[in-house]
Design goal:
Helices cover 29% and strands 28% of the residues. By secondary structure, the protein is of the alpha+beta class. It folds into 2 domains: 3-145, 60s Ribosomal Protein L30, Chain: A, CATH 3.30.1330.10; 149-292, Alpha-Beta Complex (Phosphoribosyl-aminoimidazole Synthetase, Chain A, domain 2), CATH 3.90.650. The strands form 2 sheets. The chain has a 7-stranded mixed β-sheet, with helices on both faces. Strands 1-2-3-6-4-5 form a 6-stranded mixed β-sheet, covered by helices on one side. Helix 3 packs parallel to helix 4. The relative contact order is 0.16.
C-alpha cells in the first residue's frame, strides 16, 4: 500500500496508535496542539508546522509573506486551543544559490509576526536544501479553565465561524492574521465547548470536531460567510488555509455572543451540533437537505 492509498489522516491515526504517552501529557496527537501539564492553573501548549516550497507556497512568492505565514500558522494552532503563543524555534532549509536579500526578507517576515504577538524566537537550525523548507515549533500556554479542545462539542451547540471562508487562491493563505484577540475573548467570557482553526477547509476541520466529539452537524448554506475572492461555494468549503476559527458553544449563550461581539472581524452562526446522526447535513438556500462529505485538503 502507498501513502496516497492510505491517506493523510489514516496515516496519522496509524502513527498515534503506536505511541505511548506519560502522565505528563493531557492531550497528544489529535488536536491543534499537544497539551502538557505545567502549573496548578496552566497547561503548556506545543505545536509545529512545516512549509514546503511548491506545496504551501510557490517559487517567487513574497519572501516576507512566506515568513509571515510560517509563524502565523503555528500561532493559529495555539489560538485554536484558547492559548497564548510564547516561544518558537525555527528550522529552515535554503538553497545555497538563494539571493541573500530574499533570505533576509523571509526572516524579517517571521520577526514582524513574532513582534506583533510577543513571541520570543529562541533558536533553531539551518541546512542547505534544493527547495525552501521552513519548520517552526511553538510553545504556548493556556489557563486550565480556558483550554479549548476539538472533542467537547455538545448536542445543540451552536456552530460559529470567524471571518470569511475561501479566497486562498488570491493569496489569503499567505497574508492572514491569527485570531488571538477573538479567541481569548471567547474562552474568557463564554463556555467554548470545542474549537479548531480552518487549515484543511471548513468541511474537513468541522469534521475533526465531529469525529473527536462523536457528534453530527447541520449547517446552513445561507449563513456560511463565503469570501468574495472564492471561486464558488464548493471551493470555499474545501480549499482550506483560511485560518479562521470554527467553534461551538451552548445554544443559550449564542444569542448573547452575537449581541455583544466587540470585534470588526465577521462572526457567523452557521449551524448546530446534533447527536445520533453522524456527518454533515447541509441545508441549501432552497430549503432542501443533503448529506455531504467532509472533503478538504490532504497531503497524500
Amino acid at each position: 500500500m502507498k501513502l496516497r492509498d492510505l491517506g493523510e489522516f489514516n496515516f496519522i491515526n496509524r502513527i498515534s496508535k503506536a505511541i505511548k504517552l506519560s502522565s505528563h501529557v493531557v492531550k497528544g496527537i489529535g488536536d491543534d496542539a499537544a497539551v502538557l501539564k505545567y502549573t496548578k492553573d496552566k497547561y503548556l501548549l506545543f505545536t509545529t508546522d512545516i512549509l514546503l516550497e511548491g506545496k504551501h507556497f510557490y517559487k517567487g512568492s513574497s519572501a516576507g509573506l512566506v515568513g509571515k505565514k510560517a509563524l502565523s500558522s503555528n500561532i493559529s494552532d495555539i489560538v485554536a486551543m484558547g492559548g497564548i503563543p510564547k516561544f518558537a524555534v525555527i528550522s529552515i532549509g535554503l538553497p545555497g544559490s538563494m539571493n541573500l536579500k530574499y533570505a533576509d526578507e523571509l526572516y524579517k517576515g517571521i520577526r514582524k509576526v513574532a513582534d506583533k504577538f510577543s513571541v520570543d524566537l529562541v533558536g533553531g537550525d539551518t541546512v542547505g536544501s534544493n527547495k525552501i523548507i521552513i519548520n517552526i515549533a511553538l510553545i504556548g500556554e493556556v489557563e486550565i479553565k480556558n483550554l479549548a479542545l476539538r472533542s467537547k462539542a455538545k448536542k445543540e451547540d451552536a456552530i460559529f465561524v470567524t471571518g470569511d471562508i475561501g479566497g486562498s487562491i488570491k493569496l489569503k493563505h499567505l497574508n492572514f492574521t491569527p485570531r488571538l484577540k477573538e479567541a481569548r475573548y471567547l474562552v474568557k467570557n463564554f463556555k467554548i465547548n470545542s474549537m479548531i482553526d480552518v487549515s484543511d477547509g471548513l468541511l474537513a476541520d468541522l469534521a475533526h470536531i465531529l469525529e473527536e466529539s462523536d457528534k453530527g452537524a447541520v449547517i446552513y448554506e445561507k449563513t456560511i460567510p463565503v469570501s468574495n475572492d472564492a471561486i464558488d461555494f464548493n471551493s470555499a468549503m474545501r480549499d482550506g488555509e483560511d485560518f479562521e476559527l470554527i467553534f461551538t458553544l451552548p445554544k443559550k449563550q449564542a444569542d448573547r455572543l452575537e449581541d455583544i461581539w466587540p470585534f470588526e472581524t465577521r462572526l457567523s452562526r452557521i449551524g448546530r451540533i446534533c447527536s445520533g446522526r453522524k456527518g454533515f447535513y447541509l441545508i441549501r438556500k432552497n430549503g432542501k437537505s443533503e448529506k455531504i462529505k467532509s472533503a478538504g485538503f490532504t497531503h497524500f
